[in-house]
Amino acid sequence: MTDFAQHLQAVHERMAAAARNAGRDPHSVALLAVSKTFPAEDVRAAHAAGQRAFGENYVQESVDKIEALDDLRASLEWHFIGPLQSNKTRLVAERFDWVHSVDRLKIAERLSAQRPAGMAPLNVCLQVNVSGEASKSGVTTQEAPEVARAIAALPRLRLRGLMSIPEPQDTLEAQRAPHRELRALFDALNAQGFALDTLSMGMSADLEAAVLEGATIVRVGTAIFGARDYAH
Ligand SMILES: *Cc1c(COP(=O)(O)O)cnc(C)c1O
């Protein structure tokens, strides 16, 4: 087995164990492999090991990677998960299947306007700044219903759910608290009539906590590809 296949299997085992502990079906949690800073050939190797969904943070890096992997396009799903500036939305709208990091209405409006007519609507998550958020982006839980309503009305987007990036914590209990907060917001929005099916939360260090609190997509980089080297 290749390293990637081994790492992917280990991550799937962690996800399944957490799902069982939560009384959830292991198939209700999907793995997004976060390939930022890693070359296209690593994505190709992970794809050969069965992985289909990949997450990217940097627009130019991902555009080059998607192009280099064009021969696999039909069996790859690309998710943009990084900070998105308005002057870069077109590149993302034209190339990605999902955007998890929609953190303001203006970005959503641009993505909808720029999504090509021949493509399926772009799947999006609203990024929420839960307590102890690592990045300072994202709407507050108070703002979320109004922004979500406006996004859900945009013609070329499909609002799928919520995403967050909490501050790293050492204990399982501390890791669970912000995930529980996002889950509560998710339930409240669905009670108000939204039909959200996606909770994008949990990374290499806290995926168990996220699955215990209801994550449907965990975003895992380091545990699959190894430590990132930002010097390159
Ligand atoms: C880099 C990144 C991840 C993956 O983090 P790891 O700790 O390497 O698993 C997940 N989500 C977002 C938004 C990221 O930027």
UniProtKB/TrEMBL annotation:
Matching NCBIfam families: YggS family pyridoxal phosphate-dependent enzyme
Highest taxon listed in the record's lineage: Bacteria
InterPro entries reported in the protein's UniProt record: Ala_racemase_N, PLP-binding_barrel, PyrdxlP_homeostasis
Modified residues (N6-(pyridoxal phosphate)lysine): K36
UniProt cross-references to Gene3D superfamilies, sorted A to Z: Alanine racemase
Family under the similarity heading: Belongs to the pyridoxal phosphate-binding protein YggS/PROSC family.
Cofactor(s) listed in the protein's UniProt record: pyridoxal 5'-phosphate
Listed GO MF terms: pyridoxal phosphate binding
Keywords of the record: Pyridoxal phosphate
Keyword check for Hydrolase: no
Function: Pyridoxal 5'-phosphate (PLP)-binding protein, which is involved in PLP homeostasis.
HAMAP family from the UniProt entry: PLP_homeostasis
Name this protein carries in UniProt: Pyridoxal phosphate homeostasis protein
Alanine racemase N-terminal domain segment(s): 7-228
Species per Swiss-Prot/TrEMBL record: Paraburkholderia acidisoli
